[in-house]
Design brief:
The complex is a heterodimer of chains A (499) and B (84). With 499 residues, chain A is α+β, with helices and mostly antiparallel strands. Chain A contains 17 helices and 21 strands. In chain A, a hairpin with a 5-residue loop joins strand 8 and strand 9. In chain A, helix 1 runs antiparallel to helix 3. Chain B is an alpha+beta fold and 84 residues long. In chain B, 43% of the residues lie in helices and 18% in strands. A three-stranded antiparallel sheet of chain B has the order 1-2-3, with no helix packed on it. In chain B, a hairpin with a 2-residue loop joins strand 1 and strand 2. Chain B is extended, with a radius of gyration of 18 Å. The chains are: A alpha+beta (499), B alpha+beta (84). Strand 12 of chain A pairs parallel with strand 4 of chain B. Bound molecules: flavin-adenine dinucleotide. The site of flavin-adenine dinucleotide (FAD) has 38 residues of chain A, from strand 3, helix 5 and strand 10.
Chain lengths: 499, 84
């Protein structure tokens, strides 16, 4: 589709939304054609939408989808645009539906402790309002200031403090969802907006969460709230070797302390990066090889009691506390990583501007050490091949209070200005190899970002086994004309089969 | 209020922290300037601006803490309790 001024589609959209909410300018479209993850900048033009619309309500979204469906125009939903698997980047042009105007707080229910919001709002803005009632919405990605509720639903995101409060899928109770045909449904547990658990019917909430905009658009969500914690504790510890840090993070996660909100394990490569390149520069002696941080939330007396226990456990396993300044500074900085100007190093050590890419996976605790070595080998190969890549080390975050599986990510710096087809190909190959290592160790390719990007997406059918065929059937049934985010998750196959 | 250009534009002499980092002001670390010559070059900053940036970063982090809890508990204090 190439839209021309005076085009009837454009006219109809202007009628539905008002002319000022249909954007055709190049800058408006360019701004919505990429996400912060490394991007084939040299091929940017291939990923431009034809136009951008800014609806203000569920009804307007429904009308846009009805029109797009009748004319077979691709539609890509976009919230904060911080997704790291290019979910919000159009592959086939068409219409980007930017939902940022649907950002009202419609209800705060103090008795049932929920609130209902437009999906264009984010947790930071919401928390500024509900803090006045002593409440918090604890969905806490490292992109906290800029990812929005709709994008959290679109990716089924992962929260830094999810061990204490749950992740996006637990915190979003229900939502209004516009199907690709323009029909509006309400999905949640049962019919209720504020029910946290039901066993009626199929569990559709999970189906419409994490689909990366391939099954429609969430417009209004009801969220679970918690009392705003009185106190936080965020200790950060150094270790002389990875194995001790690994044992410590497992012990902290398994300790069963109720206020425990999460812990993170940093490996040797990450510590090197923190010493040389990260803005959170940590001037540690060379004997420090690995780091662990933890976070706890709750009433002051319970956080103090639990904190003493965690500090004792860490100390008994060889940890050295890094002091309040580093501990508190790093934990707060974990919520604003979006703002960090990034740079890496050439092999000669020169500083270069680099974008950040993190490849995320869910890995069982027992497999973390093996995956770490295999992943760094892949990063090392990339770095040997070209100065475009840098290894920024690995994190592993606890995924639940049990510590069964961990969100594991390797961070790779990419010098985007130097990307060309050869470097991009090397990158895509590396992503495929990283995903293969995950599957070989019984993991999932993605714990939070999704896996619909070139490279890793090839392995989604392998990961899901027969489940992938069910995914194709569902896509065909819900989106008969393949208008929603076409090209993602290899779902075009659903239509090839039909013909 | 006095303003002397030379005073404002001459940072204290660098002290080496590691082979990739130096420091000029307490708790403010900079990449070793020799590593910023080919692709990214350093800018000249007045001293007050460097310190302002560092302070606003600290303000920002304190604001971020307040989003999540009313109070931050000191780990050093809890460790001290353990030793008693
Ligand atoms: C610095 C940084 C740190 C990050 N840290 C984390 C982290 O800790 N945890 C984590 O989970 N993620 C993290 N991310 C990734 C990203 O923030 C999440 O994937 C987030 O959920 C995306 O939200 P968004 O509003 O930016 O969505 P977008 O990027 O706009 O969209 C993401 C996907 O959802 C679809 N979508 C958007 N809106 C809707 C809607 N209303 N209905 C249906 N589908 C929709 C889009 O089509 C796209 O496929 C981080 C990203 C950055 C840049």
């Amino acid at each position: 589709m190439t839209v021309l001024l005076g085009d009837p589609v454009l006219e109809e959209l202007r009628q539905i939304l008002g002319p000022e909410h249909v954007l055709t300018g190049k800058a408006d479209r360019l701004n919505r054609a990429r996400v912060p993850a490394p991007f084939p900048v040299h091929r940017w033009a291939e990923r431009m939408p034809d136009l951008v619309v800014l609806p203000a309500s569920t009804e307007e979204v429904a009308e846009v989808l009805r029109l797009a469906n009748s004319l077979r125009i691709p539609v890509v939903p976009r919230d904060g645009g911080t997704g790291l698997t290019d979910g919000a980047v159009p592959l086939r042009g068409g219409i980007v539906v930017d939902v940022k105007r649907i950002n009202q707080i419609k209800e705060i229910d103090l008795d049932n402790r929920t609130c209902t919001v437009g999906t264009g709002i984010n947790a930071l803005k919401l928390n500024e309002v509900i803090a006045r009632h002593g409440l918090i919405y604890p969905d806490d990605p490292a992109s906290y200031p800029c990812s929005l509720v709709g994008g959290r639903i679109g990716t089924s995101g992962w929260s830094l403090i999810g061990s204490r409060y749950g992740h996006t899928r637990d915190l979003v109770l229900s939502f209004d969802h516009v199907l690709p045909t323009g029909r509006v449904i309400h999905v949640g547990d049962g019919i209720g907006r504020k029910i946290t658990k039901s066993s009626s019917g199929y569990q559709l909430k999970h189906l419409f969460m994490g689909h990366q905009g391939t099954l429609g658009i969430a417009t209004e969500a009801t969220l679970k709230l918690f009392p705003k914690p009185e106190a936080e504790l965020s200790p950060f510890w150094a270790f002389e070797d990875y194995d001790s840090a690994y044992r410590a993070v497992g012990a902290l996660a398994r300790a069963g302390v109720a206020t425990f909100a999460g812990a993170v394990l940093f490996d040797e490569w990450k510590v090197d990066y923190l010493r040389r390149d990260d803005e959170a520069y940590i001037p540690q002696p060379s004997s420090v090889k690995a780091l662990v941080c933890a976070a706890m939330y709750g009433y002051e007396d319970e956080v103090r009691a639990g904190g003493r226990r965690l500090l004792r456990i860490a100390r008994s396993l060889g940890a050295r506390y890094l002091g309040d300044e580093i501990s508190e500074g790093d934990w707060a900085a974990r919520h604003d990583r979006y703002a960090t100007p990034l740079h890496g190093r050439t092999r000669s050590g020169q500083v270069v501007p680099m974008s950040w890419h993190c490849e995320d996976a869910s890995i069982n605790y027992t497999n973390l050490p093996a995956v770490r070595l295999a992943w760094h080998e892949i990063a090392d190969r990339l770095r040997r091949e070209s100065d475009v890549f840098d290894d920024w080390g690995m994190f592993a975050y606890t995924n639940g209070a049990t510590g069964a599986d961990y969100l594991t990510e390797i961070d790779i710096g990419i010098w985007e200005q130097r990307l060309d087809d050869a470097a991009w190909e090397a990158w895509v190959r590396a992503k495929r190899d990283l995903a293969a290592v995950t599957l070989a160790h019984g993991g999932s390719i993605s714990a939070c970002h999704g896996s619909c990007r070139e490279g890793e997406v090839d392995l989604v059918p392998v990961e899901l086994g027969g489940g992938y065929d069910v995914m194709l059937d569902i896509k065909r049934a819900i989106d008969p004309n393949n208008i929603m985010n076409p090209g993602k998750y290899l779902l075009d196959q659903a239509y090839a089969e039909k013909s | 209020m006095k303003y002397r250009y030379q005073e404002e534009m001459s940072p204290p002499p660098p002290q080496r922290v590691t082979d990739v980092a130096i420091t000029r002001f307490e708790h403010v670390f900079e990449v070793e300037p020799g590593l910023m010559t080919d692709h990214v070059t350093q800018q000249t900053f007045p001293n007050w601006d460097t310190l302002r940036l560092v302070r606003s970063r600290a303000d920002h982090l304190a604001w971020m803490h307040r989003h999540f809890a009313d109070k931050v508990i000191s780990g050093e204090e809890l460790l001290h309790d353990l030793d008693e």
